[in-house]
Amino acid sequence: MFSKRKFMCLAAAATMLAAIPVQAFASDWTPRRPIDFVIMAGPGGGADQIARFIQSVVEKNDLTSRPLVPNNKGGGSGAEALLQLNSARDKDHTLLVTLNSFFTTPLRQEGLGIDIQTFTPVAMMGVDPFVLWVHKDSGITTFEQFVEKVNADDGQFVMGGTGKGQEDSIVIAYMSGAYDLNIKYIPYDGGGAVAKDLAGKQIMATVNNPAEAKGFYENGDFVPLLAFSDERMDAYPDVPTMKEKGQDFSYYNQRAIVGPPGMSEEAAEYYRDLFQTVYESEEWQNYLQSESLSPLPMNAEETREYWTKQVDNHRELLAEIDD
Amino acid sequence: MEILSYLVDGLLLALQPINLGLIVIGVSVGLFIGAMPGLGSVNGVAILLPITFLVPPGSAIIFLAAIYYGAMYGGAISSVTLGIPGASTAVATTFDGRPLALQGRASLALVTAALASFVGGSVANVLFTLFAPPLATLALSFGPPEIFALMLLAFATFVGLGGDDIAKTVFSICIGLVFASIGFDQISGQPRLVLFDISGFLHGIGFIVLAIGVYGIGEMIWTIEQTRGEVTTTTPRMSVAGMISDTREAVRRGWKGTTIGSFLGFFVGVLPAAGATPGSLMAYGVAKLVSKTPREYGKGSPDGVAAPEAANNSASTGAMLPMLTLGIPGSPTTAILLGGMVIWGLVPGPQLFVNETEFVWGLIGSFYISNFAALLINLAFIPLFIWMLRMPFTVLAPMIFVLSIIGGFAATRDMHDIWLIVIFGLGAFFLRKFDYPLAPAVLAIVLGPIAEPTLRQSLLLSSGDPSIFFTRPIAGPITIIALVLIFLPALKFFRRNKSTESS
Fold first, then answer.
1. Count of CB atoms situated within 10 Å of the CB of A202
2. At what angle do helices B357-389 and B106-140 cross, to 10 degrees?
3. Which residue has the higher pLDDT, B402 or B499?
4. Nearest CA in chain B to A44
5. Contacts of residue A77 in chain B, CB cutoff 8 Å?
6. Where along chain A do its domains lie?
7. For the CA atoms of chain B, what is the radius of gyration?
8. Quick check: A192 and B352 CB within 8 A?
């Protein structure tokens, strides 16, 4: 506990620090306060795991002078997190860990008034591909059999996912459109719940990131049918991609770090260096491999271009869902 | 006995000096995190996760599990002494723990809570050790219709909780359900009921916010109004002989609640999606339902303290089961533990039990040790907590206020929630003035977010046909029991009216 006098001293020191012009730190900016590490999802989900993993790498290797403090703002499909970032008071000490609701939520909830192009790109940590899974007891082993079964069930084939407008539903909608499939879609509140209900055969198939289905796959419960990646995945060399099936479609979950609008260039540079170090660490490289993430290194300008492309893509894909 | 040899190995691992030391530290830290209103095991585990890199994975998870255990014990402490639930899992403990404390029997309440927690934890540990794989299969057979049926059953046990006035109980449940639906609609994927476009409502109304408002602020205003500012102190006994006689009384008057809580809590905990909070509330409801003296509940029944306390410990062990056997979190805290396992380089999933025998059984062994350590540490601290109660209310009231505000802020770090706590406190005071029971509203905000999506998922599955709740082998019987319980009081009411008419 601080004594009152100590507290006053600290407060005075803090005011003085704040009064010093920012330029003084231009050459070697370092964080002066704990960093608000906003996560676009609730505790325990895929995005949360990645954020905490990154935090742990930073902590373990002692990479910052101030800690990253994870702050779960999952409300409204990440809308809450986006608003928090958009109106961050301390622009140099706020960071966001994204998934694709970074693109979809501003499109689906236009009233939020969020323009992601105003945000500051910091780092692209990797992209997470999607895979179509069925339970081994279904007897389905190829994508062709899957299409046949869905057609035979005539609207009674049940798939689970994390909700309308979420990543997996976009993939399912595209797949349904391309192969004229009539699928019954049940929304759940997270990838874990979806995987559990596929394991319990409450639903018949899912589209999940490999990380969420890996345990069951290794146990032989889940069978991967199709990967929605550009190339075959190293961890699943026998699983064909949708591109091989003649559809020009791939879909990834963006795992990136983003700063608020108006983050100072010095701070942005500091964080870019920081996350570059994290990216190159042995821990992160092992994580990319074990969780089947693909690397997608890009600089700030490339990231902005990537965002523009993604927003356009998602606008089209979402229009398909709403039809 | 293969299991026994694994268990012995696990116990030996947990008893290694470093692990034993971590257990004692973890349990003590957890006890205080749990006792701090608003902060529960979720926050404790999340905050301390990064520091576990200093030790091997086995020791790390043992440490976190010890915090989890300690927090379950600690939650009861502020529920009893201050009347504010220390953690969401300890809300039901306030229902009878607080009245006991007001009668000067705080030490009885605390001893009962500690013993019930210990028994709940022990029962759960034994069930876990013996039946983990078959129970995992059972958990998987619970799809949306089964979970919804179970939630219906929980509501049914609570219809009688608010006393005789069923209309007011139903009203209270409805208010809770409306609050529960604020924020985000999972099925359509759209925000809903974001009142006045305030972004704080996007994350919905947290259960802990309502609970602190109702039981922290509301209760305080109520007490001030009742005593008209007169200084009241309870002078609870505090002696070794007193504690021994309290122990005897706790066993005599709390064994029924403990038994119900231990088994029911474990079962509810094992089901992914539920967790310890619904488990403890359901245990309270069922204990009251089967009690011969239901009228004592809410007025200071040791059974009413024992049932939720046994249940929350037993459920927290139960929630570890789907985490370890399937890699699926059974509660928010286990979700974070699961994340920790990934960080430590373990692969959660069905193979964990086979590939990481030492890790899994070391953890199970640590449950036994943590449970025992938590009991001893908790009992040792009881005199300290009782001493706190000797403070005059004029000192205690501002303290409760400050703790409520800090606790509410700590959980979400959002000022929005602080204003809500104050508003709920005032609202609760007036509702109480008009004799509305508040426990059902609290129950509804816990169970609503589980019940609503599962109801709608089930109806999507069946294309809108409600018979899905009756035709499935597990959901069917549960639904029918729930409906009978809901309509039983109405039937009784109808009969009673008839008999008064004829006489």
1. 23
2. 150
3. B402
4. B335
5. 184, 189, 191
6. 33-128+252-322, 131-227
7. 22
8. no
- The CATH number of A131-227 is 3.40.190.10
Instruction: Evaluate whether A33-128+252-322 and A131-227 have a shared fold.
Output: yes
What's the pLDDT at B233?
A: 55
Q: Say whether the ipTM exceeds 0.85.
A: no
**Interface test mutation site (partner A, options B43, B49, B342, B452, max chain A beta carbons within 10 A):** B342
**Residue-wise DSSP of A206-275:** EEE-HHHHHHHHHTT-EEEEEE-SSS-BTTBTTSPBTTTTT-----EEEEEEEEPTT--HHHHHHHHHHH
Chain centre distance of CA A259: 15
The Cα B254–Cα B4 span in angstroms is 31
pLDDT band at A148 (very low <50, low <70, confident <90, very high): very high
Q: Where are the domains of chain B?
A: 2-502
State the fold for domain A33-128+252-322.
D-Maltodextrin-Binding Protein; domain 2 (3.40.190)
Minimum-distance CB partner of B329 among A60, A73, A192: A192
| Contact of A146 with A134, CB cutoff 8 Å | yes
Judged against a pLDDT cut of 80, whether residue B162 lies above it is answered with: no
Give B201-237 pLDDT, tens digit per residue: 777 787 778 888 888 888 888 878 877 766 555 565 5
Do A76 and B339 count as a contact with CB atoms less than 8 A apart? no
